[in-house]
Write a structure and sequence with these properties.
Blueprint lengths: L2 E4 L3 H12 L4 E4 L8 H7 L3 E3 L2 H5 L3 E4 L6 H5 L9 E4 L4 E3 L19 E3 L7 H6 L6 E5 L12 E2 L2 E9 L2 H13 L3 E4 L3 H8 L12 E2 L1
Parallel strand pairs: 1-2, 1-4, 2-3, 4-5, 5-8, 10-11
Antiparallel strand pairs: 6-7, 8-10, 9-10, 10-12
Bound molecules: NADP nicotinamide-adenine-dinucleotide phosphate.
The site of NADP nicotinamide-adenine-dinucleotide phosphate has 25 residues, from helix 1 and helix 4.
Amino acid sequence: MSIGIIGSGALGSNLARALARKGISATISNSRGPESLASLIQEFGPSIKAGTVQEAAGADIVIAAIRWTDVEKVFSRLPAWNGRIVVDATNPVEFLDPNSADAKDPSNPLAAYGIKAVDLGDKQSSEVFSQFVPGARVVKAFNHNDVAALSNPDVAGGRHVLFYSGDDAAAKAEVRKLIEGTGFFPVDLGSLEVGGRLATLPFGALAAHNFIKI
Ligand SMILES: NC(=O)c1ccc[n+]([C@@H]2O[C@H](COP(=O)([O-])OP(=O)(O)OC[C@H]3O[C@@H](n4cnc5c(N)ncnc54)[C@H](OP(=O)(O)O)[C@@H]3O)[C@@H](O)[C@H]2O)c1
């Protein structure tokens, strides 16, 4: 299975690093083009290639490592998915300009973190995300915790847990394999409606917690 990563920021670069540690091949992309990734690619070694967004989006498994507010813009321009797997690693939060009124809004419980929750009504975020990737099989993964947890799957006496959820069993099985390949311990949380809600920031009960499989 080929892997493409869209986004090379905190999440995309650390995911690529986690794949590179195990020699797993992937194409990583960003908004500035492959040349901007030269130093990261040098660090990652031969298994990770820089590509355009279109090249990364052509993989069998495409990981969305972009901000929620960029999802519609990026994904509405991509070719047909035809049943390929898209991993939604996003969280529905908006990053705030520290000088904005929102950043000082006392009614925003996340203001201290420089973010605010995006209001999706009663929709689960991957349900909204799925609208932008028609025909794809969406799996939610790699989103539940700070990227610092991706730096090493092993901890004393155990392995870091990565959650995943989705509505297509075969797609979930592929993502499970990918998580296992990186050395992390995969835990299936069920459907997007159930598992996605549990593991999605900012308010999912399992989000932002670091679980260890011992
Ligand atoms: N940071 C974390 O600890 C963490 C953990 C779990 C989940 N997440 C989620 O992961 C997602 C990404 O977060 P992040 O912290 O990695 O954000 P980030 O550091 O701001 O990185 C965002 C990436 O998206 C790329 N991008 C923006 N517009 C694009 C476009 N039009 N085409 C292609 N690429 C585009 C940017 O490209 P350029 O580099 O060219 O600007 C950048 O590489 C968010 O949804 C976040 O909620 C983050």
